[in-house]
Design a protein that fits this description.
Layout lengths: L1 E2 L33 E3 L2 E3 L12 E4 L4 H8 L21
Antiparallel strand pairs: 1-3, 2-3, 2-4
InterPro entries: Cyclophilin-like_dom_sf, Cyclophilin-type_PPIase_dom
Keywords: Isomerase, Rotamase
Enzyme class: isomerase
Length: 93
């Protein structure tokens, strides 16, 4: 999985949401059916159906999957990346 960083505090403590401090989970219509699924603040790079009903899926990577696969090569089982990965000039976050 590719998990986003805290863009406000840069320490995982939290950030700002357009809907205020907290927001309710949405629907569970979309499922974790394969790689490149967006699920609340992380992008899944494998099929993880056991997350169904726990994390709301709200989209899927449609373009740039090769970038996601390249980023995945720098990951590890303990969650630390072997190189710093920065997303820049990507438009709106």
């Amino acid at each position: 999985m590719c998990q986003d960083d805290d863009v406000i505090h840069h320490n995982g403590a939290g950030g700002k949401f357009v809907y205020g401090e907290k927001f309710d989970d949405g629907h569970f219509i979309l499922k974790h059916t394969g790689p490149f699924i967006f699920s609340q603040f992380f992008i899944c790079v494998a099929k993880i159906e056991w997350w169904g009903g726990k994390h709301v899926v709200f989209g899927k990577v449609k373009d740039g999957m090769n970038i996601m696969e390249a980023m995945e090569c720098f990951g590890s089982s303990n969650g630390k990346t072997s190189k710093k990965i920065t997303i820049a000039d990507c438009g709106q976050i």
